[in-house]
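User: Just a sanity check before I run the rest of the batch. Below are the structure tokens for the first item. I only need the designed sequence back.
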């Protein structure tokens, strides 16, 4: 049975915040530290509000990668519509590099382009195949130009 004020008379539901299971007694706000007279008496204090600021440390693991190198091995032809490129990674960790190509006609005009992302182990080389983007223009390709700088993506 509950009393007129809603309490059951059983103290087992009283918690550290005041009477009732949810700290909903009229005095519970004061128990939590709210003070009406401006004093600190019974006030709850948390840790200081100062937070540490992250700073970069030399030699950390989030160093950016240096550019890789790209060297043309073989240009695209009508029989093989991709260029073969050797990509090297000068870094001490594996990286993913973007290789960019221009496929040009006999007048030096770009008839197509292409690019590829290549994963290269640390201080190693891999061979990549860069497809011609405009397959209908493969027969116009006379020579290829590779950007010698393979840019690191990650």
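Assistant: Here's the designed sequence for the first item:
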């Amino acid at each position: 049975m509950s009393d007129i004020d809603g309490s059951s008379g059983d103290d087992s539901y009283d918690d550290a915040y005041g009477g009732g299971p949810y700290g909903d007694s009229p005095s519970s706000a004061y128990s939590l530290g709210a003070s009406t007279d401006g004093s600190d008496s019974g006030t709850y204090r948390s840790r200081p509000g100062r937070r540490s600021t992250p700073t970069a440390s030399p030699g950390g693991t989030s160093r950016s990668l240096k550019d890789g190198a790209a060297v043309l091995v073989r240009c695209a032809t009508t029989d093989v519509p991709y260029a073969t490129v050797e990509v090297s990674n000068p870094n001490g960790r594996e990286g993913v590099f973007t290789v960019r190509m221009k496929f040009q006609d006999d007048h030096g005009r770009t008839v197509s382009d292409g690019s590829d992302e290549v994963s290269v182990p640390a201080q190693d080389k891999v061979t990549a195949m860069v497809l011609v983007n405009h397959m209908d223009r493969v027969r116009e390709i006379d020579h290829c130009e590779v950007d010698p700088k393979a840019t690191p993506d990650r």
